[in-house]
Design brief:
Layout lengths: L8 E3 L7 H5 L3 E3 L2 H7 L2 E4 L6 H8 L8 E4 L6 H7 L5 E6 L9 E7 L5 H11 L3 E5 L5 H9 L1 H18 L4 H22 L3 H8 L5 H11 L2 H21 L1
Helix pairs in contact: 6-11, 7-8
Length: about 240
C-alpha cells in the first residue's frame, strides 16, 4: 500500500506471468528496457541463469539515479557490480514465501554504490511484506537455509503435529487449523516478548506435566540436531549453487 499500483511497471516474456500484475492494477510490458527507462527502483526477479542476459540488455539504460535490487539466488553483489556500470547502486535481496501474505522474512545486503538512503528506502518499502533486515552478504545463503527453505520445515512440523492429533481421534481439518494457529501464536510470542526460545519453552513445562513428557520424546528423536543439520544442508546447497 506504500506505492500506488499505477506507479509499478512489470515486465515478463509471457502474458501469463503478467496476469497477476494486471489484476492488481499495475502497468505491464514485455520490454525490460522500458521498465528501466520509466523507473528509479528496479527489482530483478529472474532465475539465476537468466539474469546475466537481462543485465546485458538493460545495462545501457542504467543511470546514476537508478537503484537496482536483485532477487536472484546465488548471484553475488560482485557479479552484479561487474555486469552493471561500476557506479550502479545495487542491492541483493532474499525474501521467502510468506511475503505473499505480508508475513515474510527478508534480508538484504548493499553493494559498494548503495548508501544509507537506498538501504533505508528498501527497508521501508519491504516492511509492508514482513520482517526486513540488512545483513552482511555472507548471511544471505544462511538466510536461505534458515528461512527460505525453513518455511518447508515448518510445514512438515505442522503436518506432523496435525497427524498426531488425528491419530488420537481429532478430525484432520480442525487439527490442521489448530496446529497452524499454535505455530502462529508461538512465533508471535517470540517476536513480541524478545525472549530466548528456551525461556518460553521452559515456561510451558510444569513438573511431571504433559509438555515435558512430549519434549522427552522429541529429544529421543534428536529433533534439534536434525533441524540444525537441515539448516546446514540447505545453506551449503545455496553456497554450492552460488559457486556454480
Amino acid at each position: 500500500g506504500k506505492v500506488p499500483a499505477s506507479s509499478i511497471l512489470a515486465s515478463a516474456p509471457s502474458d501469463k506471468n503478467l496476469d497477476a500484475w494486471r489484476d492488481s492494477g499495475c502497468r505491464t510490458t514485455h520490454c525490460n528496457l522500458e521498465v528501466v527507462q520509466e523507473s528509479t527502483l528496479v527489482f530483478l526477479a529472474t532465475k539465476p541463469h537468466v539474469l546475466p542476459d537481462v543485465l546485458q540488455e538493460i545495462r545501457p539504460a542504467v543511470g546514476p539515479h537508478h537503484i537496482i535490487v536483485s532477487l536472484a539466488a546465488g548471484v553475488t553483489l560482485q557479479t552484479l557490480q561487474r555486469l552493471l556500470p561500476a557506479w550502479t547502486k545495487v542491492l541483493r535481496l532474499m525474501p521467502n514465501l510468506p511475503c505473499v501474505v505480508q508475513a515474510g522474512a527478508m534480508v538484504f545486503a548493499r553493494g559498494i554504490g548503495a548508501g544509507d538512503e537506498e538501504a533505508a528506502l528498501l527497508k521501508t518499502l519491504l516492511s509492508s511484506c514482513g520482517l526486513c533486515e540488512e545483513v552482511p552478504e555472507s548471511y544471505i545463503n544462511i538466510h536461505t537455509g534458515l528461512s527460505g527453505s525453513g518455511v518447508a520445515y515448518v510445514y512438515l512440523f505442522a503436518e506432523a503435529m496435525a497427524e498426531g492429533a488425528v491419530k488420537m481421534g481429532m478430525p484432520g481439518g480442525i487439527a490442521s487449523r489448530i496446529a497452524a494457529q499454535t505455530l502462529l501464536g508461538a512465533a508471535k510470542m517470540l517476536l513480541e516478548t524478545g525472549e530466548h526460545p528456551a525461556k518460553l519453552r521452559g515456561d510451558v513445562c510444569t513438573p511431571g506435566g504433559t509438555t515435558i513428557h512430549a519434549l522427552h520424546e522429541l529429544e529421543k528423536g534428536a529433533l534439534r540436531a536434525t533441524v540444525m543439520n537441515a539448516v546446514e544442508a540447505a545453506t551449503q546447497q545455496a553456497c554450492d549453487m552460488a559457486e556454480d
